[in-house]
Amino acid sequence: MKQVFMSKNAQNLCAFAKEKYGDGLEFLWQKFPKNAVLRKKKTKKWYAAFCVVSKAQLGLGDFKEECVEIVNLKLDPQDVLAFIDNQKCFKAYHMNEKHWISILLSGNDTLEFEQMCRFLEQSYALA
Fold first, then answer.
1. Does the pLDDT at position 23 exceed 90?
2. Sign of the CA dihedral running 97, 112, 20, 10
3. Closest C-alpha to 48, from 32, 71, 24
4. What three-state secondary structure class fits 98?
5. Which residues, in sequence order, are CB contacts of 109 under 8 Å at separation 6+?
6. How far apart are CA 30 and CA 127, in angstroms?
7. How far apart are CA 26 and CA 37, in angstroms?
8. What is the pLDDT of residue 1?
9. Which CATH class, in words, describes the domain spanning 8-126?
10. pLDDT mean over 97-111
């Protein structure tokens, strides 16, 4: 499998999903080779989408060339707005903003890994 996601958080979250659910990254789009999903084996529903995006796409300034790694996770709609801080958690990039959030995986200012795992578990349950 190709190594796209270089941040420790991305690698650890993928390892967590592999160990807990037996799911590995699936690169579904030739046009977007740096994007991948985790999905349930039985239903094929996504519960995580890993992407490499520019900081500008998250509203983190005008750094169009500087990219970061994110994961989109599904949450209960009542919880989504509570976690958006536009520093670590954002409105979902390229997903339904009512049900999904984007979590910054690379850089110095990220969520605690345990919180990311809890979000991943919730996303899996909701998928």
1. yes
2. positive
3. 71
4. coil
5. 87, 88
6. 24
7. 5
8. 45
9. alpha beta
10. 89
* Residue 106 CB-density burial (10 A; 0-12 exposed, 13-18 middle, 19+ buried): middle
Give CA–CA dist 46/67, Å, rounded: 23
Q: Quickly tell me which residue has 């969520």 as its tokens.
A: 111
Residue 46 corresponds to which tokens in the numbers above? 């996504």
* Three-state DSSP class for residue 108: coil
Specify whether the CB–CB gap between 46 and 38 falls below 8 A: yes
DSSP single-letter state for residue 62: S
Q: What is the pTM of this model?
A: 0.90
3 near 15, Cβ under 8 Å? no
Q: What is the pLDDT of residue 120?
A: 98
Strand order across the 67-74 sheet = 36-39, 46-54, 67-74, 100-104, 89-91
